[in-house]
Amino acid sequence: MSKEAIPVESLGQPRDSALEITPGELATRIETWLCRYLADLLDLQPHSVETSQAFARFGLDSASMIGMTGDLGAWLGCEIDEALVYDYPTISSLSQILAARPDVQRIVGERAGAVRTIAPAVSA
Q: What DSSP character marks residue 45?
């Protein structure tokens, strides 16, 4: 893609002032970030970005996907292996795996200044 990189700070912070966030809520926030990122990159409306569509279907080349994972990692405050976009090739699957990572949960919670960072997932 020839478009300039989108400033990470323009896409907001991963957490607001809430003291707890569930892994599901964190996944939703990551999905929202990715939808906005791709919408800005591809000149689309965020609501038109399908979370179940493979990144390759958006026409992203490997350099664009590396840039996206770098920007996402900067937003989350942790390093993200670029290979994850190949192992988890959709917005939904990537968001879910990242939200389940304890290091992402801890960093997001610390950035919010929360004592209790992530509410435990409820098991059925």
A: -
Residue ranges of the alpha helices (H) in the chain? Answer: 23-42, 62-76, 84-87, 91-99, 102-112
Delineate the domains of the chain, giving CATH numbers in brackets.
Answer: 19-112 (1.10.1200.10)
Q: Which of 22, 45, 46, 36 is nearest to 96 (CA)?
A: 22
Token duo for residue 39: 């919408």
Q: 51 and 92 in contact (C-beta within 8 Å)?
A: yes
Where do we find the tokens 């795996």?
97
Please tell me which residue, 9 or 30, carries the higher pLDDT value: 30
CB 40 within 8 A of CB 5: no
Name the one residue in this structure whose structure tokens are 């350099």: 63
The total of other beta-carbon atoms located within 10 Å of residue 91's CB is 26
* Contact by Cβ (8 Å): 27, 95: yes
Neighbours of 30 (CB within 10 A): 24
Rounded mean pLDDT, 79-107: 91
Query: Is pLDDT larger for residue 12 or for residue 46?
Result: 46
Q: Given a cut of 60, is residue 22 above it in pLDDT?
A: yes
